[in-house]
Amino acid sequence: MAHTQEDRWAMMLMGPALVLLTLPVLWQNETRFDYYRAAAATQAVDSLDDVAAGTLISLTGPMESGSAIPGEYVEAFPGFLTVNREAEIYSWYQPDFSRNTHYEMKWKSSVQNSADNAGVKQECKSKSFYRAEYQVGELPIQTSLIEFFDDYDTIAPKTLRLKPTGMQLHLKPGSEYFHLTKKASDGLGDERVRYTGIPVPRVATYFGKYESGHGVADQSHHQSGIVYQMIQDSGNLHCIVAGDRPAALAKIKSHLQQLKWIIRGLGTASIITGFVILFSSITGFMYHLPLIGPLAGWGSFLAAVMIGLPIAILNIAAAYLIAHPLLLAIIATGIVATIYLLRKRGKASQQALRRDLNQQYGSPLGTDELKELEFLELAQMAMSDAQLDDNETKILQKWAKKHRWDQAKYDAMIARARSEREVIDPGTADDEHLRNVVRLAMADGTLTGYEIRTIRSVSKRLGFDDATIRKMIDRVRRDIARNRAEAQSHPAQ
Prior knowledge:
This protein is 50% helix and 16% strand. By secondary structure, the chain is an alpha+beta fold. Strands 5, 6, 7, 11, 12, 13 and 14 form a 7-stranded antiparallel β-sheet that branches. Strand 3 and strand 4 (76-77) form a beta hairpin. The longest helix is centred in the middle third of the chain and has 38 residues, at 245-282. The termini are far apart. The mean pLDDT is 84.
């Protein structure tokens, strides 16, 4: 099946749309309502006699099997708190919208819109079933907005009895599913239904609000909208959990952490997929070329991972810190303290270097004098062969222009560099010039990228590679640290 030009434009828009839709999902997942903290903050009660209306409570008590939950295709589900019906249909499905991939036959929760699925109709629907009312100990609990955190068990079809509606659909029980087989030879349109449920525990704990003699949902943090539905975050505290209070709280905490990590993983994969769709649609024409086609596919995927993964991680990290202000404050304080200590250490190193330079040159040096001396060292390095070529002249002129020197001063400094170069022992000049220029460049407290590039450019002709320059910079820094330590251990009296 070939994609039309309109399909390609649709896929180019689909990729960014998927990324933009996933980002708020990841953000809300980190800032979601903390069910564990809310449940842990409830008042644990053993009796309802003195509980005031509107109190957030937790109550542990026995649960009876009670009446069975009525079904729709089957008669009833005895011994369960809640039951989920998962309906799937066997139909054509295209897993990758970004390429000219073929459709596959798969079990899916709904029918994908395509010409191959024309006429395919799904008759069985997914649904959740609940009791009319729950009770933990002496507390009756409203079904509305109730939530559960325990694991679901598969309900064997042979333990259930079909109702007339299920018989009319011609559902047939299997080992795990009820099957609805249709006439297509390849199974197209066949359906299956699976039931799972949470068994009624012997002892359970309820968390929620006590109101009018019932346990009802506390909706003070209620969330609504498709994003909250996707991450299963209603914001309501109204749940029944198997076990006593400590066991129930541990289960809520574990469930919440597991759910967060699942959404983090799925969200990150969704963002990467969005970029894969975008990049693949852009380079789609390359897939038809021999040899290049597979490389284009891998290139799109690698680019999507390199861009999508950092975006997802940064989004998750930012939302996590917003949701944990104390941790954010600790990190911010640590960053500020680190910057302060580094600046303090830098100033101490700068002062130690300035003292060393002042002693070397015989007088206190101002900023302008430091720049002049730095230029002289650079110029003398460039004059190692007694000549300045065009490239070296351009480097020095650019340096002078950056420091707002006029032509007269530049010429005077070049002449001074030539005269001083003549009286220096050529056997030791180059290495000493490199050390001096690094020291002078660091004397103002920073060794800028421009200064490093200039030093590298001038030093190349002398045979100093990047490794040599880095070693010299490290050597100067060690000298500064040693001098600073000596000054601290022997302060001036």
